[in-house]
Amino acid sequence: MGGQQQHGGTRHSVVFAVNGEKFEVSSVDPSTTLLEFLRYHTRFKSVKLGCGEGGCGACVVLLSKYNPELDQLEDFTISSCLTLLCSVNGCLITTSEGLGNSKTGFHPIHQRFAGFHASQCGFCTPGMCMSLFSALVDAEKTHRPEPPPGLSKLTISEAEKAIAGNLCRCTGYRPIADACKSFAADVDIEDLGINSFWAKGESKEVKISRLPPYKHNGELCRFPLFLKKENSSAMLLDVKGSWHSPISVQELRNVLESVEGSNQISSKLVAGNTGMGYYKEVEHYDKYIDIRYIPELSVIRRDQTGIEIGATVTISKAIEALKEETKEFHSEALMVFKKIAGHMEKIASRFIRNSASVGGNLVMAQRKHFPSDVATVLLGAGAMVNIMTGQKCEKLMLEEFLERPPLDSRSILLSVEIPCWDLTRNVTSETNSVLLFETYRAAPRPLGNALPHLNAAFLAEVSPCKTGDGIRVNNCRLAFGAFGTKHAIRARRVEEFLTGKVLNFGVLYEAIKLLRDSVVPEDGTSIPAYRSSLAVGFLYEFFGSLTEMKNGISRDWLCGYSNNVSLKDSHVQQNHKQFDESKVPTLLSSAEQVVQLSREYYPVGEPITKSGAALQASGEAIYVDDIPSPINCLYGAFIYSTKPLARIKGIEFKSESVPDVVTALLSYKDIPEGGQNIGSKTIFGSEPLFADELTRCAGQPVAFVVADSQKNADRAADVAVVDYEMGNLEPPILSVEEAVDRSSLFEVPSFLYPKPVGDISKGMNEADHRILAAEIKLGSQYYFYMETQTALAVPDEDNCLVVYSSIQCPESAHATIARCLGIPEHNVRVITRRVGGAFGGKAIKAMPVSISHM
Amino acid sequence: MGGQQQHGGTRHSVVFAVNGEKFEVSSVDPSTTLLEFLRYHTRFKSVKLGCGEGGCGACVVLLSKYNPELDQLEDFTISSCLTLLCSVNGCLITTSEGLGNSKTGFHPIHQRFAGFHASQCGFCTPGMCMSLFSALVDAEKTHRPEPPPGLSKLTISEAEKAIAGNLCRCTGYRPIADACKSFAADVDIEDLGINSFWAKGESKEVKISRLPPYKHNGELCRFPLFLKKENSSAMLLDVKGSWHSPISVQELRNVLESVEGSNQISSKLVAGNTGMGYYKEVEHYDKYIDIRYIPELSVIRRDQTGIEIGATVTISKAIEALKEETKEFHSEALMVFKKIAGHMEKIASRFIRNSASVGGNLVMAQRKHFPSDVATVLLGAGAMVNIMTGQKCEKLMLEEFLERPPLDSRSILLSVEIPCWDLTRNVTSETNSVLLFETYRAAPRPLGNALPHLNAAFLAEVSPCKTGDGIRVNNCRLAFGAFGTKHAIRARRVEEFLTGKVLNFGVLYEAIKLLRDSVVPEDGTSIPAYRSSLAVGFLYEFFGSLTEMKNGISRDWLCGYSNNVSLKDSHVQQNHKQFDESKVPTLLSSAEQVVQLSREYYPVGEPITKSGAALQASGEAIYVDDIPSPINCLYGAFIYSTKPLARIKGIEFKSESVPDVVTALLSYKDIPEGGQNIGSKTIFGSEPLFADELTRCAGQPVAFVVADSQKNADRAADVAVVDYEMGNLEPPILSVEEAVDRSSLFEVPSFLYPKPVGDISKGMNEADHRILAAEIKLGSQYYFYMETQTALAVPDEDNCLVVYSSIQCPESAHATIARCLGIPEHNVRVITRRVGGAFGGKAIKAMPVSISHM
User: Fold this and answer.
1) I need a labelling partner for B2 at 20 to 30 A (CA). Which of A420, A526, B390, B780 fits?
2) Using one digit for the tens of pLDDT, what is the confidence trace for B516-571?
3) For chain B, what percentages of helix, strand and coil (3-state, to nearest 5) are there?
């Protein structure tokens, strides 16, 4: 929120600070992300590129914004892989190196991550540290009592939630949670797992004293004076005509009209840019229009009719506003707002919600059928939207907005209005009626960046029958979304059917039958039956216990019921009345870690801190992609086959602007004389580096495009079009069954044949138990290492090469590279330093990556 | 020469080819040299930075220019360290990698340099190869008979001269000359030194057959088609308003006026830019005006009055024009022209003369007192200059031009006119008079880039006395220059004295006395007495043998004498009448290399080719500065003390534009905590890295300035001003004698004390001979390695460092770096790969360079 700043002029360069250090960038491709800038133009490489989608948290940094009017700092985490560089103008960025490092001393966060063995491959650790640090900063801002020495104001519950959305693939999270919880004022020190700080049997006080002490340090992310000055004379950013920050609706209109007038110019409205995590951007835009500085779009306004939330308000800010206790609203309205807020807290991760805007989410839902939670819960709550098209403004029900054709580029979503539900003021409501509101969501994970299989929001006005022997539905809104539908819908037929009915099993059964026809996933949606059944389950959960209620149902009981429902949301059913985050119980069940250490081979077996663990935490550990690239380094990206079995006729680029930056397009034809088209070598034989005339599977590398930057190489690979031909080819074999049918079998290497021991048939016959035949099918699984496959090849004298590779089998890469290039093995040196997760996935599949980088 | 091209428009990017590969540069600092571009923006790092003054030849490349009208290629060597990138627009550059390399196969030049052991440290070798290659290209253009198989059209004499100006500090040149001569059609194979091609005793034919065969290959430096197209639609270069190529005097005037109008804009006229080798450029210019495309300035015109040479004509082209045999001129005039040409061939090196302009040389002489040879010889020959100031043009005698105040920036030297000396047409001359003309030059080296201690040019009209008993000087011009004078002068008083005199020793003695008063080096000139004596010697050489001639001196004898004098110039006195470079005898005296190889330890002792020698020749060998710098690498330059003993009060930068690019200015105050101000460590103790409060000698490092590029760091160091204070300090000790006087002695380490053996006094007394005392003084000497001191430091994890250093003692650097930074030695890794010459100079003095790069 905060007042809009007065803008004093226009500035043409982006000015910001990283760990207190000033950076000024006057010439920048506006699509540059903060991550790209940090990794390629600063020494702060703690910021890791994991998924590039805001889904893993390896790139999390703390962003601090200064409000000169209030002289206040706002600090929150963001995904640097989605945040555009231009949007951090005037901000301070803190990375894990900024917390502490090997030169200035590590931060206790780093030390405790190390001591609790919470960093294995280490690739996720700096992001984890930043998420925890942000939680500590937030806790310090509360008015809670001073924590015991060495600890913080953080609660255990907050400590656990701090890293929600930060993925780790090595540790299983237990040690990370321990490291986080060790900062909590209310930590149960006995609950923490093995670590290198204390010995078994030491007292609680001694144990705490052995932790690297935490002391709130205002110096960290202290806002630099030069940036305060920047902000106090705040100027609008206008970078070489490619980044605009209009400060009024009129200015926005002017910019849009100027773009409209020219069909040469492509433009994009941006607030948090988090949508790019889902909709990978291949397109290049000429103009970016940052709409966060337009008052109408950043408003949060409460009045008796409800809450209006501007389109650019972040989901985090919306949650905060919706949670706010205020006398302005009736308790029923507050209940609805809080439930919406509670649901919104399950959307994506904290670091995404901190930049993602409510409006961006709704527009994606409307234009691109994004499986939005915001749309569903707001639809259930009867929200309205304000739309501007040119000079014209209109207010629509959200439902109508969603059903319209995709919003055109001239139309702007200004804000959303959530009505104030207050049955006492509703003249049409019966005086004894009660408002029920609940939201639902089923997703692969309860928290942390998982899209729902289905979501729902139900609002109902119910009252006890006048006869006192049942509950009547006076009115209801039943919204469902994200189940494989263009947009969130209301189950109108079910609503109509239920309206006026007294709830009983028969009624509910009929309703469910109707519902099955309303919630129908579109063709091609995965697990459709499960999704439909979720809708039924949620509806049953909402109405089920109100069914067949007979005697003595009063309004008071219903109100109690309504409160009770609200608590189902939190994972533990307790009877506290007031929401106090600091008192919410922990997410993790209790656990005890018992490790028996034999003293026989002492000191072997002693828990010691892994060498380099603190460096991993501070982000100073150097992974392949952190090795400074040589000047004029070229970058490559694979083009993969999309057809399992096809002839490759050629490769072209869709976009005309691409070939300029492309230095080479390598395919099997470019294997040097004397070399072989070999991409990996295993005990089962070798695999080709590139598909030759025929592709052998979908996902097989077809070519390797080389460009002046990784971004350009990736983009070129994205817009490459492979021309396939499938005439006269048999259909591809896509399952084991087909392979057996068509006798297409790999030969099993003889060393894998089991040696027969004894007479198997005889043994089987004599056995007490018989073998029963059964069939089990295992789906495929991703290795899912956090660090992507990476290699850096540096040519050296006399046709020698040094290849840095994140590989588990450098010795195989070594031989394979030499064979592929047709050079002696002694000309090749493969160096593996750190591997940011592997799980077998970097044993074989890292080889083609190393080879292609030659 | 060649006609002026028609210019079709303006082009805003520099387009050229390197080894056939296209480069297009649209945004460039116009002060960027070709060397900077090649080394920092291409992979062609064979081009080495040695002296940066055009004085060593390590950066020599072949430049090919296409003339679309004549469909002809001109190929010549240039110093890439002085050539501005913008001036190679439209040209093809060939580097040693372009001749051949480890991937495509080495060129026979590379192979023979390797086989003749002509590459030791290898730093000079690529430049050597290019100079030889250029000579081969020139020879192939002649109409000489086809050479024997495997050899070229080159002559031995040309082969030897090919590398004049390319310095080598390791080999002593013998093996290099052998490698060059091995290509000559007229090679005496027995004259070539040891090599790894043939065995002793093999026949001449077999030996030749064992040489890697040379075959003229038109493919090398074949002009690329795309560049031909560029040239045929030749466009003028105008790079972002900072590089202009006017094509007429009027356009030049316009540009100059626009510059004149603004005192904000600094500008510079450029032709070959070779002057920068002598006058290091600290200044940055806003505009460069390339005047090579203005017809009036690039003219070479002959008429009956003489030869007019445009100011931008290169010295090489001027030599060519002056040497041309033409019926147009009387033999006397031709003699004068050829002598001027012969003298000009001793100026700088071939690769400098190929770009240096006649006008640039004269303007430097006039404005900046450059010790010019051109000015002296033209003054002796009675040349005139054409000057343009605004709309006004005037013709001046060269003498008057030199005596004027420095040419202002509005005035342009257009051309120089050398008169046609033809006494037969001179009505005032006596009919039996003869013209004598001679030029002289004394320099540290006869050929190859050495400024003269003194030069002279004498022209005299003499005739036999009517009495027949002596020679009368009818007229004379005696020009002297470069002896420590503002500009070349005529010894007027001597001229006047001699005019009309019959030559005898008395007359000559008087003339010499007068000359001593005329040729007086300015205060501060080194070896002034030697310089004056040279003037006397040259005058005596010119007139001496004509003195005291008595009987029967005829005009014919004088003409013969005149011819004879002309031959003194060439180093061997033979009686050939016609100049034919291919028949000029070789420069090197005959030599025989006898190496007795013992077979006792066979194969030890066998001459084998050094591993990597061919890589050194092709320029693929990687020296420290060839290691690709990491992205965002910082570059440093030392600021040295100019005072031997002074207090340092502070350091500032003269130029206001500098501090922007300066990242840090490090001095002893920046030694990290726990570290020491230590720069080197020897058996005699350690030396500080930086001067602390007091400087200890002139040349001591005071600070290290760090910037975003080497150029900017060098520039910042150049404009840095150290504020010294010398109050209350004793005078510095500058000689051994002063040190002894003031008892300021270093302690001799005990291990250096000689152990007394026997009774020295007794032995001395009993000895047959007595020791006589004498004093000998040795001046200082430069180590003079070709590769400058270089180090590259790459920070690694956990405060570790990898330092690549061109050092002879990596083990000492290793320890010293650790002590300076206060880190454990195991955190430091020092890697020495190749050392481009050292001679002890990279034992100790490379250490501070390695350390400062931390």
Assistant:
1) B390
2) 999 999 999 999 999 999 999 999 999 988 886 665 566 666 666 665 544 343 33
3) 30, 20, 50
- Cα gap B156→A586, rounded to integer Å: 92
Cβ atoms B66, B90 nearer than 8 A: yes
Domain range for B316: 295-568
Q: Which two tokens stand for residue B295?
A: 């017809």
Is residue B388 domain-shared with residue B516, that is, in the same domain?
yes
Evaluate if residue A275 carries a pLDDT over 70: yes
Better pLDDT: B667 or A764: B667
Is A631's CB within 8 Å of B103's CB? no
Q: How far is A798 from chain B (nearest CA, A)?
A: 6
3-state DSSP of B455-505: EEEEEEEEEECCCCCCEEEEEEEEEEECCCCCCCEECHHHHHHHCCCECCH
For A169-242, list the strands marked E by DSSP: 235-237
Does some domain include residue A601? Answer: no
Window 85-104 of A, Cβ < 8 Å to B:
102-103
CATH code, domain carrying A358: 3.30.465.10
Q: What does each C-alpha distance from A380 to A234, A436, A452, A458, A809 come to in angstroms?
A: 40, 11, 16, 6, 54
**In total, how many domains does chain B have?**
5
- Provide ipTM, 2 decimals: 0.81
Residue A686: CATH number of its domain: 3.90.1170.50
Please give the mean pLDDT across all residues of chain A.
88
Q: What is the pLDDT of residues B357-391, one digit of tens each?
A: 999 999 999 999 999 999 999 999 999 999 999 88
Higher per-residue confidence, A781 vs B291 = B291
Strands (E), A231-374: 235-237, 243-244, 267-270, 287-290, 300-303, 306-310
- pLDDT of A740 reads 94
In a domain, B247, yes or no: no
Sequence-distant (≥ 6) Cβ neighbours of residue B549 within 8 angstroms: B470, B471, B503
Please check whether residues A529 and A645 belong to one and the same domain: no
* A137: closest CA of chain B, how far (Å): 27
Q: Measuring CA to CA, which residue among A649, A647, A692, A633 is closest to residue A667?
A: A692
Which of A123-127, A223-227, A642-646 has the weakest average pLDDT? Answer: A223-227
CA distance A764 to chain B (A): 60
Asked which of A527, A542, A568 is the last residue of a domain, the reply is: A568
B701-749: pLDDT as tens digits: 999 999 999 999 998 999 899 999 998 999 999 998 999 999 998 888 8
- Asked if the C-beta of A210 comes within 8 angstroms of chain B's C-beta atoms, the answer is no
Residues 6+ apart with CB under 8 A from A348: A54, A165, A274, A315, A356, A449
B104 to chain A: closest CA residue: A799
Q: Which residue, among A126, A121, A109, A130, has the nearest Cα to A180 in the 3D structure?
A: A109
| A671 min Cα distance to partner chain B (Å) | 14
Residue range B808-816: average pLDDT? 92
| Predicted TM-score (pTM) of this structure | 0.86
Question: Which residue of chain A has the CA closest to B619?
Answer: A797
Contact residues for B842 (Cβ-Cβ < 8 A; gap 6+) = B783, B785, B789, B806, B807, B808, B835
Q: Quote the DSSP letter at residue B115.
A: H
Given a cut of 50, is residue B639 above it in pLDDT? yes
What is the band of A703 on the pLDDT scale with cuts at 50, 70, 90?
Answer: very high
Domain CATH for B176: 1.10.150.120
- Regarding whether B37 and B158 lie in a shared domain, the answer is no
Chain B residues close to A41, C-beta within 8 Å: 632
B360 located within any domain: yes
Both A362 and A511 in one domain: the answer is yes
Chain A partners within 8 Å of B122 (Cβ): none
